[in-house]
Each structure stands twice: as C-alpha cells, then as structure tokens.
Design brief:
elongated, about 90 residues, mainly alpha, about 65% helix
Length: about 90
C-alpha cells in the first residue's frame, strides 16, 4: 500500500494556484558565474593539453629519427656480417 500523504496544493481564497516564488537575481547571477568559471576551466585544460602535446612533438620526432637510424645501422651490420651486402666492384 502507498502510505505517502498526498501533495499539498497552495491555493488562494479565490481558488487560484499560488505561483512559486521568483529566484533572486543574485542567485541567477551566481549560477551563471559558476557556469562561466567551469567553461573557462575546461578551455584552460584543453589549451594546456594542446600546449603540452606541441611541446612533446619535437622530442617524439627526434626519438623516431634516432630509432630509425639505429634500426638501419643494425640492418647494415647484419648484411655485412652475412656477406649479403652489395659488392663494391662490378664483375
């Protein structure tokens, strides 16, 4: 069984419903200030992440070039060790 009380309806003596109280201007202003602060914080975090990614990009490119050169050097050494390399003179 439902044991809750029915909702209270506020009415005037003339039978009209009472309108809810208006939200104060300061409360609405504070709410918009909080929304603006959250949006500004999100934009700051996005800009900081982008700046950090751009800062790491040259390091990543340099590491890629070093890794590629070491890979090519090892391939060259293995070809030289097994005699697979191209001869210096033509026969």
């Amino acid at each position: 069984m439902n044991k809750r009380n029915p909702p209270d309806l506020e009415m005037t003596l003339e039978g009209e419903f009472v309108s809810p109280p208006h939200v104060p201007v300061a409360t609405r202003l504070l709410a918009w200030a909080i929304v603006a602060a959250v949006v500004a914080g999100a934009l700051f975090l996005a800009a900081f992440a982008l700046w950090l990614a751009m800062l790491m990009l040259p390091v990543a490119i340099g590491a890629t070039l070093i890794a590629w050169s070491i890979y090519r050097y090892r391939l060259w050494r293995e070809q030289k060790a097994f005699g697979i390399g191209r001869p210096m003179t033509r026969s």
